[in-house]
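How a chain folds remains the central question behind the approach discussed here. For one protein, we set the task of working out the structure tokens from the amino acid sequence alone. The sequence in question and its structure tokens are set out directly beneath this paragraph.

_____
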Amino acid sequence: MYHEFFGLKEAPFRITPDTGFFFSGGERGAILQGLVYAIRQGEGIIKVTGEVGSGKTMLCWMLEQHLPDDIETVYLANPNVRPEDVLPSILAELELARLADASRAEHLRTLNDYLLARHDAGKQVVMFVEEAQGMTLDTLEEIRLLSNLETEREKLLQIVLFGQPELDVKLADPRIRQLRERITTAITLTPFTPDDIRAYLAFRLTTAGYRGPDLFDRRVVRKIAHASRGLTRRVNILADKSLLAAYTDNTRTILPRHIRVALRDSAFNDEANPPQRWLLPAIAMGVMVAVLAGFYWLSKPAAAPALLAPSKPTQTTPPPTSQSSPAVVTTKTSADPFEQRVAATHDWLMQQPADTYTIQLSLLHNPNEFAAYLREGSGLAQDQLRIFRSQAQGHPSWTVIYGSYPTRQAANRALLSLPEVVRKRHPYLRTAGGIRNETRQIQQVGEQS
């Protein structure tokens, strides 16, 4: 409903895992690489735990995509599988012939022969066990026994257990201590920090096609972080509902009240704030009125905003006739190096095609902070550092960007090669067209105030 309003090409906050929206921040990228390495080593059982909605399924799907071609994957995704059905389920996943009345020993021999053949061909087989916390101790023990399939030097079947924290409680049971002792790699998906969430929201919006200024400021992000407890599924739900609330308000600024509306409409808020039965009709009526009001305001024509330029601009050519081919605008030079950099950035932005990519490094609240940026160096090319005027929470600020790239792929490669001290600030991709839109919106707000 709100996609066109915010300039989105697709829904940015679906709760169904989509590997195209995988966010490598919050240590998720490092965890993914660590899992690939552990599987390649082929020793022991790997355990991955995390709260409901922390991104285990997304990580599992990404892991399958990032494994090399010589590693075959098999899924055991039914937590209610009985011990005697584990082997038949694996054989079915591998599309191996099996007799309905075959014994466990015959099933095991079929699996062992297949694994040996794959090993002789230089291949590996890894089994992903999902929702492991829901399995009985007997089923988990049956899975452990499969780790006994090995050659003199190597395991034939690598096992990765995915589960909620309850899995650790189950593994603490003395009756299954042998499985616990076989776990050589244990990874916990920790909740996102507020900084992680801010970068996550910006990344998903950009991936979905958004090219404007930040929609979620730090104050709003803190509220989302508190309500979501840092769990990605909850973050997605709150972000989606808050965008809808802003849409019905006919505003492109997400405010704390939009988060409150989103939280009130979320199931995971039931315990913290149980709704009174008599309030439900009133809430439903309020939402209906808000939506109808939103449609009314959206039907009103909006004035076209002007581009915000640095101080005292002098236009030397006609205004741009299209976003893809902007006209060149030059500005009067100033003796102040900072103002010179701002003016040069403005000229650069006006000359770039709308789909030129750059990397947003930081948001500054004081111009003097940029001088520190230049002094630090941080391994960045000084002539590629640019800065433009922006706003944060209604106050003047300055945004630092870096580089110029013709494609998203080139920009992504450059982002990944940034110095570690810079990447810790969670930089992300922007486009010249998106930045121009941001400055237009700021200019429009200034003219209305």
